[in-house]
Amino acid sequence: MAMVAKRVLLFQIAATLLFASAVAAAASDATAAVLKPGCLSKCGEVDIPYPFGIGTDCSMEGFNITCNDTTDPSKPFMGETNIEILNISLVDHELSVYIYMAYQCYNESGSSAFTSLSPAYLFSTIRNKFTAVGCSALAYIVGETVTGNTYASGCMSYCNDAGGVSEGTSCDGMGCCQTSIPESLSNFSTYFNESDKNSEVASFGPCSYAFLADQNRFHFNKTAFSPNFGNKTNYLVPVVLDWAIRNQSSCQDAKAHPDTNACRGGNTACVDSTNGPGYLCKCSHGYTGNPYLEGGCQDIDECKLPREYPCFGDCRNIPGGYHCSCPPGTHGDATKDNCTAIPPKFPLPARLAVGFSVIFVVLVALVSCVIIRTQKTKHKRERDIFFRKNGGFKLYEEILSKKVDTVQVFTVEELQRATDNFADKRVIGCGGYGMVYRGILDDHRIVAIKKSKKVDERQKDEFVNEIIVLSQINHRHIVRLLGCCLELDVPMLVYEYISNGSLFGLLHPEHYASPLPLQARLTIAEQAAEALAYLHSATNRSIIHGDVKSYNILLDGDLSAKVSDFGASQLVPMDEDEFIMFVQGTLGYLDPECMQTRQLTDRSDVYSFGVVLLELITGKKAIYADDAWEKRSLATSFLVMMKEQRLRDILDNKMIGEGGERLLGEVAAIAKECLSVKGEERPSMKEVAERLHSLRRLRLQPREEYDPGEIEMVKAEETRRCTETDTSGYHILDSSTLLKNVDAGR
Ligand SMILES: *[C@@H]1O[C@H](CO)[C@@H](O)[C@H](O)[C@H]1NC(C)=O
Ligand SMILES: *[C@@H]1O[C@H](CO)[C@@H](O)[C@H](O)[C@H]1NC(C)=O
Ligand SMILES: *[C@@H]1O[C@H](CO)[C@@H](O)[C@H](O)[C@H]1NC(C)=O
Ligand SMILES: *[C@@H]1O[C@H](CO)[C@@H](O)[C@H](O)[C@H]1NC(C)=O
Ligand SMILES: *[C@@H]1O[C@H](CO)[C@@H](O)[C@H](O)[C@H]1NC(C)=O
Ligand SMILES: *[C@@H]1O[C@H](CO)[C@@H](O)[C@H](O)[C@H]1NC(C)=O
Ligand SMILES: *[C@@H]1O[C@H](CO)[C@@H](O)[C@H](O)[C@H]1NC(C)=O
Ligand SMILES: *[C@@H]1O[C@H](CO)[C@@H](O)[C@H](O)[C@H]1NC(C)=O
Ligand SMILES: *[C@@H]1O[C@H](CO)[C@@H](O)[C@H](O)[C@H]1NC(C)=O
Ligand SMILES: *[C@@H]1O[C@H](CO)[C@@H](O)[C@H](O)[C@H]1NC(C)=O
């Protein structure tokens, strides 16, 4: 049993192999299918492709070929004719055949020639030329086209007695002439006119020949004049015929009759005949074979034909074409053998680097986000702390209780923008609490921003004090507070900007400037006094300035006084005349009584104002250097001089020169009263203001012009002076070093 099974298996394998090889053979036949099965493929040496064929059912109608095998090799003829076929081209739709020539010899009778073609064929206009060879030969050609037109032409060759044609000559008239034929020529005859026959021409041959000939096969040369030229060729010349399917006039007609369409199967294309009516069948691009046979057009496997379809890379055949690409890692034109290696755009290390970079960036971004978030929260917390520390809540309480409603609260960013981030060039002064900057707000308002020095816990309330005090004051000779910022550890106040700097700066310019006129001085003094009087009495609660000095009296554009810097100010309830506080002020202006009692009263301001009056009339600083370069208190010196009746010695010479000695004396008298040791002996600020007012009215002279250009210069100096506080004659008194703190007894 086992043996039988094995044999059956072997048989099956053999059968499979046989079948497979048969299929392969059929396939290879199909690729070369130009022939109808069962028909001869050749006659002699000429290939016979369909639609041509030998015998019944082997050809298409009109393409019958007779193969005469009595000769060796066999010779194919067109149909029933005696026209021998030399070659058949399926691709070019051409047929090379032999036809007869016409000839005539001078002592012989000649012959004309006639050729007629069956409907499928026409003489090729391109390939053939009517040619006459001979001496003084006039040859004629007369034919008919398929459209029924008659065509007649002729040509004449020349010759001369010198005779002969040189080797390698062409058919250019000498011994040979040529002319073209029209399209669609179906039949024609060639002949010579007997009466034109020339007499003997020794140098040339005895005969002339006329024929239509294939230009590729007939080359005119000297042998055409050999006596046996015609005899040697059997009077036959090769000519090219165009063949086509001519029972429909065009492809359009052929498509209209699909059942008789000669273009069979797939992958064929129909082309109109270029010579005469009819159409041609061709294989589509990328296919080869016989378009006149069913399934005759087969795909060309271009990859197997590297000579016709060069490919130096990876070749892949596709129906109707092929893909030729450079091998992986290279680029270029694979069909031209210049695939070059692609420079590695992203080698592995680079790719790794990019990958890690991306991860790194993402990580950094994440971490940054977290940090920024925590920083923001921290920053916010810090701001809140500062706000609280700077007495923000006290201010808010006041705002809530409607005591403060004119103060605008600024953010740090707003003020940084306004001052170029607190640039040094924006510094316009330095007060007792810190630097003062010139700033421009977002709404273009020009302001002075007072940036406090670091405040300690003890000072925080004072800072808010100034805010509250100033917010309740609205007087034309007092600097207006516009707002504040409590978000930093250094609180800031925003004031209206006073353009002409301080009285101190004008009185004590670093460089020479024309002195402030007496009238202006009096006006300033009166206005400052008015402002202080207002502080002391005009509001519902008395306010003591606490730090009156020429540095704190600012001057605006028209030299109108503006009292500023309320850092030491205190509100005094109306029912209390004086209260206890820790005193701070500036050396040279400090009320001696206050220093002893540590009680600040409105009369302390009067004392300080007295010193300012002295500055105005003497032109000296509150602490000045005398002729011996010894530092002296102006107040003390003045009082001594007054006692010794030497007032003139201390007065400003320029003012005396103005003829104001009497006036200066009056002011000196007021100053003296202001400087009384005992507070109660000093006049009130209101009195001082009134007396100054009447004094100024006494002076009838018109106010003199003051050059503003010089004021600018003075201001610049003042800015610079902030860095040289020692030479300014001021010393900012820190109360903690001079006096023991006393709790505010409110
Ligand atoms: C045209 O020729 C084809 C092929 O020879 C043939 O099958 C067909 O019958 C012919 N049609 C006419 C109208 O003659
Ligand atoms: C072709 O020619 C042969 C003789 O050469 C003839 O027997 C045959 O019938 C012809 N076929 C056609 C289709 O004309
Ligand atoms: C074949 O050719 C010879 C000589 O060329 C001729 O005698 C003979 O009749 C031809 N046969 C046919 C069938 O045409
Ligand atoms: C026949 O023509 C084809 C194409 O025109 C050519 O390749 C071939 O050599 C020719 N054969 C002969 C015998 O002239
Ligand atoms: C024609 O002339 C040549 C010489 O000119 C001569 O050899 C030849 O026999 C002649 N032929 C006839 C038929 O007269
Ligand atoms: C020449 O060709 C035309 C057109 O094909 C035809 O009508 C005519 O009968 C032909 N003449 C001869 C003598 O064959
Ligand atoms: C031949 O030529 C003569 C005169 O040159 C002319 O009369 C005659 O008609 C011509 N014959 C032909 C058929 O052309
Ligand atoms: C001259 O022409 C003939 C036929 O056309 C050819 O066989 C021969 O080789 C040619 N001779 C020269 C020298 O070209
Ligand atoms: C032509 O050829 C035949 C034989 O092929 C020969 O007998 C005859 O003499 C030749 N004629 C001439 C003019 O060469
Ligand atoms: C490929 O070769 C052709 C011709 O040799 C040249 O013109 C072309 O620039 C080359 N291309 C490349 C990518 O090298």
From TrEMBL:
A Pfam family matched in the record: GUB_WAK_bind
CDD domains xref list: EGF_CA (cd00054), STKc_IRAK (cd14066)
GO molecular-function terms, A-Z: ATP binding; calcium ion binding; polysaccharide binding; protein serine/threonine kinase activity
Annotated keywords: ATP-binding, Disulfide bond, EGF-like domain, Glycoprotein, Kinase, Membrane, Nucleotide-binding, Serine/threonine-protein kinase, Signal, Transferase, Transmembrane, Transmembrane helix
Signal peptide boundaries: 1-25
Residues that coordinate or bind ATP: 451
InterPro entries in alphabetical order: EGF, EGF-like_Ca-bd_dom, EGF-type_Asp/Asn_hydroxyl_site, EGF_Ca-bd_CS, Kinase-like_dom_sf, Prot_kinase_dom, Protein_kinase_ATP_BS, Ser/Thr_kinase_AS
A biological process from GO: cell surface receptor signaling pathway
Membrane topology label: Single-pass type I membrane protein
Domain of life: Eukaryota
Keyword Ubl conjugation: no
Gene Ontology CC terms, in alphabetical order: plasma membrane
Chief place where the protein resides: membrane
Residue intervals of the Protein kinase domain: 422-696
Sequence intervals crossing the membrane: 352-372
Subcellular location as annotated: Membrane
Coiled coil: none
Every EGF-like domain range: 299-340
PANTHER family: OS12G0615300 PROTEIN (PTHR27005:SF59), WALL-ASSOCIATED RECEPTOR KINASE-LIKE 21 (PTHR27005)
Name of the featured protein: Protein kinase domain-containing protein
